[in-house]
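help with this record:
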Amino acid sequence: MISAAPSFGLDLPDYPWEAMAPYLAKASEHPGGVVNLSIGTPVDPTPQLVRDALAAASDSHGYPTVHGTEGLRQAVSAWFAARRGVPGLDPKDVLPTIGSKELVAWLPFLLGLRPGDVVVRPTVAYPTYDIGATLAGATAVAADDLDELDAATRAKVRLVWVNSPGNPTGSVRDAASLKAIVEQARQVGAVVASDECYAELGWGEWDVQRGGEAVPSILDPRVSGGSNDGLLSVYSLSKQSNLAGYRAAFVAGDSAIVANLVNSRKHAGMIVPYPVQEAMRVALGDAGHVLAQKDLYRSRRERLLPALEGFGLQIHESKAGLYLWATAGEATWDTVQRFAELGIVVGPGVFYGDAGNGFIRVALTGSDERIDAAVERLGASS
């Protein structure tokens, strides 16, 4: 008797965005064309100086270094000091990653988490935090404060994800809030990993260029108490430098953890290509293109936000980042359908956890022409 063939592959949920296909099809029927504001992918050109750096490094015949070039790691350290209020970061405590999503997905596994361990992620959150826990066999728990957990669960916490500015909500944790979560995690011996990739895109009270305060990092001395033990800051250049296609990101913080990540990633061949490392180094050293891109997003936000409100939506949080988190006081999919009928595709809040039901996420990542088209359609339907 021949036994049945073994089943191969990971048992993961279907990728949620596949559920958007009918709404995208409906929106595409609009005579003015679709306005896709559902996914936060950059639409503006990659800065020329970054493209030049990539091209100049294209004769890259040898293997790149997993730990990153000294020049890149020094650039990250200098950027933390100049832009994030984190002076004196040792370049050896920096590691480039192949975009930030792969680090989010694999960090629990690379930290050695196993079944029985708990990963805490925000109540409304990017789904990859849960996937990362699943890949390690750990348990993901939604909470914004460890005091929300019962004693038995809290004792099993090994990793706490912080996302500030948040995706999809655009919420920002101030230094006091971050310090509190760090102290809670240290009490139970857990690592705090802070996903900070929207930190340079603050609005209102967090808009530095308009007199606001800079969004704090988990490595800020006001937060860390002067020690990076148990702390990791995760950052991506996809948003601020239009480098999503480059897969350009890094993690920095706890010396021992970063050293272990470097060693593990050497074994696994998880290496950022040298031309991309050079592009990152140049991008981090030039604030001008970041501020110019932020001006574009600010302008789009200032046009889109009142149009959404005029259409009957309430904007919640949305203090930083590339999204407006909004509700019409109805089921998420009803709102998604109403937007699709206007030829506009938005992100369903239910993709980000049960607490996202009733909300939609509207991205600022449309061209000026497409943003204006959305504003016109919303206005005509109000």
In short: The radius of gyration is 21 Å. The chain has 13 helices and twelve strands. The chain has a mean pLDDT of 96. The longest helix spans residues 287-310.
